[in-house]
Amino acid sequence: MKYSKEGDASFLSHREAMHALERALRRSGLPLSFTEGYSPRPRMSFSPALPLGVAAKAEYLEVVLLEDVDSMVVKERLNQALPEGLKVREVQPLAPTMPKLSRWARYGLFRVGEEAEATYLLLMLNGEEQGRLKDALEALASLRGITAGYREVTRIGLYASPDEVFEDIEEPLLYYRGRTGVMEEMKSQA
Fold first, then answer.
1. Cα–Cα distance measured from residue 33 to residue 157, given in angstroms and rounded to the nearest whole number
2. 2-102 topology per CATH
3. Across 32-41, 47-56, 75-84, 113-122, which has the greatest mean pLDDT?
4. Where in the chain is the domain with CATH 3.30.70.580?
């Protein structure tokens, strides 16, 4: 499922957001699959963590259900049980061959500023080029004179490759290479 984390909910830590979503899942009455052992938990997988205070338009959560349930029913039940600021935007069943979220979510797209005058930043979320949002914002300030705190930043998507980003936004896009600290403009390969 795709969900958003906005307003005061952007100040929930990753762990607090996980707990809120888990509570909503338990309250929803959906046929959840649970782990085994002393303290069973719903089988679920989350998007990579966000810095505290950063809003998100497109966070993802994978949940294993024991039986098929209509996507609209899942969305409605969860939204009724979630606290203000957390909202399920979309629910889709995944094929069993789809890789786990933690395996395909390699890049995060961040919007800095309001949509009309936004600057878009792409960061690798794991691996050699992994970048920290804090460092990318500092590089943006020194290169372009754009200063922004976490309150002006929204993660708007997760991607498996940088090329996928151009399906959702227009150029220009800035890519921050975490290992070297270099910020470069990216262009679509199409």
1. 27
2. Alpha-Beta Plaits (3.30.70)
3. 75-84
4. 2-102
